[in-house]
Amino acid sequence: MKIVVGLGNPGDEYRDTRHNVGFMAVDEIARRLGIHSWKKRNQALVAEYRGDESILLVKPQTYMNLSGIAVGELARWYKVPVEDVIVIFDDMDLPIGRLRLRMKGGSGGHRGIESLLNQLSKDTFNRVRIGIDRPPTGWQVVDYVLSRFTKEEQPLLESAIDKAAEAVECIVKQGMNKAMNIHNK
Known about the structure:
Largest sheet: 7 strands, mixed
Strand order of the largest sheet: 2-3-4-1-5-7-6
Strand content: 15-25%
CATH superfamily: Peptidyl-tRNA hydrolase
CATH topology: Rossmann fold
Shape: globular
Number of domains: 1
Helix content: 25-40%
CATH architecture: 3-Layer(aba) Sandwich
Number of helices: 6
CATH class: Alpha Beta
Order of helices and strands: EHEEEHEEHEHHH
Distance between the termini: 28 Å
């Protein structure tokens, strides 16, 4: 089994914000897999897909900075090794729409990833980073990540969400090394 986690914040007020690109990507994966039903489990919304490889889609409901609590509980419950956890999240160090895959590493200052590192006790989970760019001059980081994409940014966002779904499919079917070779261009 693979656990595919999209990081974000629950609630309508956060729905289309930059910090919720992980939720958006997991929703796209669910759409592609024909999943319409979500359950609440271990402080997360989860949906299970059974195919050649079982996949548990996860949207933590603990808010971004505590995402690791829900993911850690689910990984232990399903007995999934950290290496089979795939996390999709926003990254201010990448331009809007850009994707970067990594097998392990630090948090880069991302509090949701810090929470995962604390709860999973290893840094070897797979990461799909979606670029949201840096805040414009004069903006506070928190205001920026909780803002919505502009009309001009929308096509870049949609392309990134599609690419993220394709990258996760590649990771599940062909492994992270192959996915990095294809998607880290």
